[in-house]
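Let's do one together. I've listed all components of the complex below, 1442 residues spread over two lines.
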Amino acid sequence: MPARAHAIIVARSGRSASAQLSRTLDALGAQSLPPAAVTVVVLGESAPVRALPGIGHIVEGIIEARPGTTYSEAVALAGPRIAAGSPVWLLAEDTAPAPDALQLLAGALERSPSAAIAAPKLVQQDDDREIVSMGVSMTRWGRAIELAAGELDQGQHDDAEDALGADVRGMLIRGEAPKVLRPDTALADADEGLDLGVRARLGGARLVLVPKARLGVPSLGSAGRPRTVMARAWASRRSQLHRRLAYAPAAAVPLHWLSLLPLALWRSITHLIAKRPGEVIPEWGAALAGMVRLGALARSRSAIRSFRRASWAEIAPLRVSRAQLKQRLDDGHGTERGAVSELNFFGGGGAWAVLAALVVSIAAFASMLAWPAIGGGALLPLRRTVVALWNDAAWGLRDVGLGVVGPADPFAGVLAVVGTLSPGSPSFALVVLWLAALPLAVLGGWFAATRVTDRAGLRILGGVLWALAPTFLTALVEGRPAAVLLHLLLPWVFHSVAVAHRSWGAAGAASVLTAAALACAPSIAPAFALLWAVALVLMIVTHRLRGAVRVFWVLIPGIAMFGPLVIRRLRDGDPWALLADPGAVLAIEHAAARADVVMGFPSADRAGWSWFLGGALAPWVPLLLAPVAVLALLSALSPRWRAGYVLLAVALAGVVTALFGLGVVVSFSAGAGAALWPGSGLSLAWLGAVGAALVSLDTVVAMSTLRTAAALIAGVAVAACAVPALLSVHQDQALVRNGPASTLPALVAAQSDGAVDQGTLVLTPLDDGSLSARVVWGASATLGAQSTLVNTATRPLGDDVATTSVDLLSGRDFDAAAALAEDGISFVLLAQTGQEQDRARALREHATTSIDQRAGFVKAGETARGMLWRVEDRAASRGGLTATQSTIAAVVGAVQLIILLAALLLAIPTRASRRAARSRSRIVGREPSEPLVLPRRRIADHHDEQAPPRHVGLEDSAGIAHADGRESAEASEVTP
Amino acid sequence: MKQRTIRLAATGARVAAGAVVAVACAVGVVGAVAAPWPEIRTEPATTTVTPVPSDAVLVCTGSFRALGRDATQAGLMVSAATMNLRVDGDTDGTQSTPIDAPDAVGATAAQVITGAVEDRRAPLFSAVESVRLSDADARGYAAAPCREPSLSSWIVGGDVSTGASDIILLSNPGAVTATVDLDVYGDSRSASTVVVPAGTQLGIPLASIAAGSRAPVVHVSSSGAPVRAGLQSTLVRTLEAVGIDLQDGVGGAQRNQVLLGVRSAPATEGDDTTGVVVRMLAPTQDAQTTVRVRAAGSAAAGDEYRVDLTAGAPSEISLTGLPEGAYDIELSATAPIVAGARQTAREGDRQDFAWSLPAPELAAHATTMFSVPGGAPATLYLHNAESESVTVELGGPTAGDTATKTVRLKPGGSAAVAVGARGYTLTPSGRVNAAVGVRGAGGSAAIASWPLWPGAATQQPIVVRP
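Okay, and this is what the predicted structure of the assembly comes out as:
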C-alpha cells in the first residue's frame, strides 16, 4: 500500500466559491480511497472558507494567499505541509472528483512504475458526456494543444494512456518524485500540467492518463483558470513564452529573447486580422514579462537541469505533428446553414445603376474630361508629390503662414489618400473624383440600402436618391471637396456602423470610415458622438457587452486623429474652432436661410433653381422632396419601427447640426467670416431620411403596385430636383471651373518645382483699407496645406509677417529683402481682389511704387495673379522643429499610425469573417413580427430554410426579446 | 383568439406611437426654423501696424496752356497764365522744387511740394491752384488741387470736338524716367506711349491721340515712376470762349460711385448744351448701371435712370430737366465702371464748365487736409457712406486753430457747407465722401469742382489679416 495522497485545493475566495469548495470537500470525503490530508489555499479572504460547517474535520490546514496568486504559486505555498514521500493531488475549489477517482489514479501510478504523474479525464460538471480536457500536447514550436477538449465522450479516448501533458487539475504526482516536480511557479495559470509532463519525460519518467478517473469541472472559472478572454490570452502566451525560454538550449536563449518583441508585433498583426483585438495587449504584456523575468527563467532552467536524464528527442513523438494539426483545424465551413443573404450586386441591377450614373455624370460634367485640374469654389490644387501630400497630414510645420507649428487637420490625411491614387499628378485625382462622384454615390447608396431592404428595386432607389441629394449636387457645383468626400463616405459609414456590433471586421471598417467622415466634416462630430453614446448606453443596459466593446471602438480612430487638434484647441481656449470646415474657406455673400436648410437645400440658390426658374417658382421647388420626407415619417409607423426611429433620429441630428452650423462663424478668409457648411449636416439628415423612406417602402406599403408607384414618385421627384444642378456646368452657372495648376504665378511654380522650402509673400490690399498678408510655401497654395489653425485664428499665429509686410510698403528705411530672405521668402506677390475699390487700389498702387523703389527686389513683372517681385538675397532655409516638437511629431505620428493600422487590420476581411457576415441577414433591425422577403428564385430551392435563424431578429432588435409565439406564426405566413 | 387580440393591441400601440413620433419630428423641424439658435462668432486675428510714412509729394500744374495761338504751329502750346498757388498747413516742413515744362512756350515751372518725414511723421499740408482767364480763346475759371502722382488713372472728361482744345498733362516728379501708356476708349480703341523724363511736365493734345471720338476716356498707366496725369480743357463755341477746366484722373473702375455737388444750370432758351451730362465707361465687362440723382443736402429720393453699358464703349446720358441747383449723383453698376459728370455755370451770356469726378471714400478717423482757392465762393459737399450717423469735424490748418465746425450726417445723408478760401482739415467719425465745388456769383460765370482724395495710404495704421 503506497502512502496516501495529500490533496491540495486551490480555492478562490467568495461566497459562491465557498459553496463549490464545500461540494468538492464532500466529494473528497466520499472518495473510496480518501486522501490522507487536505490543504486548502484560499486566494484572498479566507473567512468564508473557514466559516464552512465541519471544515475543520476534513481539512488539515487553510492557507490564505493574495488574490492575484497563480495556481502554481498557491501549490508551492502548501508545499511545506506535505509529508515527505506523500503523493500530491492537485485540485481546485470547483473540481468534483468521482468517488473512485483517487483510487484509480493511485492505482495507475502503482501499476506503472515509470509513471511519475497520473492525470484524470476532466468532464463538464453539469454534463459529464462532454470532455473538458483529456491530455495536452504541444506543437514543434511549443504551443499547447488540447487533445480532446470539447469532444463528446463516447469512450473514444479511453484507450489512450500516453500524453505529453494534461490539465493540472486532478493530477496526482507520485510521492517519490523529486521535489522539483511541482508546478513551475513562473507559469501564469496555464500549461502547468503540460510543463509537468514535459519535465517528467525529461527526468526519464512519464505521465499516464487515467480515462476512467473522472473529475467534473465547470466550463469556465476554477481557481487559477483565468475567466476573461484577455486574462486567458495573457496566461497562455506568458506560459508558452516561458516554456520556450526554459526548454531552449542555452545557446539559443538569447536568440529567443531577442525574438520576443518582433514576434509580439507579428502576432499582434495576426490577432487583428483574425479579429481578436483583445489578445493584442496580453501578447505584448507576455513578451515584456518574458523579457524581464529572467530570475524565474533561471530557476526553471536549473530545475530542469537538476534531474534531466532523457533527451528532447524522446519527447518528439508525443508532439502534435503538422498533419494532425491540419486535421484538427476546422474552419467552420458550412456553418452558415445555407447562404441566407447573397449580395446580388450584379443580379440585382446595382451595377447597372452605377453605370447609368457614370453616363449621367459624364454628360453633366462633359467639359471636365478635358480639365487637367479643377478649381473654383473651395477647390485648390493638391501637392505635386505624394511625399508632400503625406507630410501635410503629419504633425509639424504647417505650410501656410510663417513658422506655424501644430497638428494637421485630419482632412489632409483624407486628401493624401485621394491624391496618392494619382501619384503622377495628384491634382488630377480631384478631377476624377468629381467625374466619378455620381456613380460612387450611387454605389455607396446602394450598399447602404442593403442594410434596409432586400428588394433589388428599392436598393437601386436608395443609390439614386443618395446620388441626387440636393446637398451633394450643391457641393459638387460649388466646389466643396470636403462635403463631396463626406457624402461619398457616409453611406459606407452607415453600411459598416449598422453591423459594427456584430463583428470586429465591421467595427474595424466602421472606425476607419468614421474617422475619414469626421475628418471631412468635424461639424457632424457632435451628432456622431451623441448617436454613438446612445447606442453604447442601450447596449450596456441590455447586457450586450461584446457588441458594446465593438461599437466603442468605432470612434477610437477618429478620436486619435483629432486628439492633437483637440488638445491644441483646448489649450488655446478655442473649442468652437474645432467645428470649422477643413480646407480652403469659401466666404459667400448670401448664405442659406434656415427655411432653405430645413427643406434640404444648403445654399440660397436652392441647388440652382434660383437661376433656372427665377424667383417666382423657386420657392415651390422643395415640394419635390416632399415624397421622400413623407415616406421617411411613415417609417415610424412601420413594423420595423425601431429602425425607423433610429433613422429618423439620424435625420433630426443632421438637421439640427445644419441649423446650428448656420450660426457658427469661426473660419475666415481675408477677414470675411464663413459659417459652417450646412450641407454636411444635411448629408447626415439625407442619410436618415432616405433610409427611413426605404424602411417604409420595404415594410409599410404591402401592395407591390403601390410600393412601385410610391418609389417611382419619390425617385422621379428627386431626379427632377437635380436637373438645374446637373445643367449648371454647361450653363456656366457653376463655381467649379477648369482650375489653375497653381495659385501662384508660373515663375514661382516653375522655380519651386514642388519643394516646400520656398516661400512667397502674398499681399492683397482689401477694400476696407486693410492688408491681407499670407505666406504660401511651395509652388501653389494647396488644399492639403490649408490649416484650420490658421483659418480660424483669433490671434496672430507663428512668426510675425505683418510688420515686415507693412514696413515693406512704408517709408521705413531698412533692408527689406534681407529681412524677407531670412524668413525663407523668395517672392513677393502683390495681388488684387476681384473688384477692387478705391482704398484697396490706393494701397496697392502705393505698395507697387514702394516695393519698386526698394533695393533687393527684382521686378518679375505683372502677371495674371498680380505684380511679382523676386527677392534678390538667397532665401535662408526654413526653421525646422525644435527637439521637443520633433518628439511630439514622432509620438503623435506613431500613435495615430498604430491605431489606424490596427483598425485597418481589423477591417481586412478573412474567409471566416466573410462567412460569418453572410450567415446573417444584411438587414439590420428587422423585427421578428414583420413578414420575410426572400429572393424569388431561392424560395423553391430552400423551402425548408424559409424560417430565418431565430437569433437574427432578436439580437439586432433593440435587445428586448420577443421570444413569443408570434415569430413562428409570422414566419409561416410567407407564401412560397 | 387571445393571441390575435394581443397582436392587434401591439400593432395599434405601435401605429399610435409611430404617429406621435412622426408628428413630433415634423413639428420639431418646423419649430426649429423659428427657434432661437445660439450664434457663435469669433473675431479673426488681425495685427495693426503703424507704418513709417513716406515723404508726401504733391505735384501742381504750373501754367495754364493755350493751344493753337500761333497759326503756323497748330501744335504749339503757350502759357496762357500762371495759376495762383495756395499752400496751407504745415508749410515749414515742406520744400518746393520746380519741374520743367519744355514743350510750352513761356511756361513757369510747375511746383512739386515735398513734405519730408520727420520723427516718423509726415507733415500735413495741402495745395490748390486756380486761374481765371478772360482771353478771346480761353475764358472762365478753373481750379484743381495739387496731387500725388500715381501709376494708373483714368481721364474721363475729355473732348475732341470742334472748338475743344484739351491737353493731357503728364508730370513726372520722380528721379527716373516714366513710360506712360495712354489707352483711349472711344468710338475706336487706340493706344500710344509717351516717355516722360524725370522732373518734367509734358502736354499731349488729346486730339492727337483720340481724334474723332465723341466721348473719349483715357487710361493713363505709368511704369518706371508714378506720374500725375491731369486734363486741362478749353472750349470755344462759335468763336466764343465758353469755359476752361482742370480735371484730375480717376483712380480706377469700381461698382459704386458718387458724384457730389453737381450743378445744374438749365438754359432758358436755344439749344441746351449746358445741362448735366454723365459719362460712363465699363472698361472690361458689360454692366447695367443705375444712376440716381437727388438734390445735394437732402436724402429724398430723386430721379433714377438705367443705362446698359457695353464693355469698352463710353456712353453719355444727359440729365435734362433738372432745375437749377446742386445734385448728388449715385451710380451703382453690376461691373466696375469709371464715370464723371459735366456741369455748366451760366451767368448772362457768359458760360463756364467743369467736370465733376467721383468722390472716393475717406476712412473713419483719418484726417484729410484740403485747401480752398479764392476767386469764387466755395462749398464743401459731404455724403455719408455708412448706415449710421457720422459726424465730420472741420478744422483749421494748424493744430491751434479754433475755427472748428462739426457737421452731423444722417445715415446715407449728405450736407453742403460753405467754406472760405483757406486750408481745412476734415476728420469724419465714419466713412464719408466729400467734394469741393466752386461757383462764381454776381456776374461771373465760374465753376470748378473736385473731390477730396485721401492722403497717402500709409499715413494711417494698417490692419493686417493673415
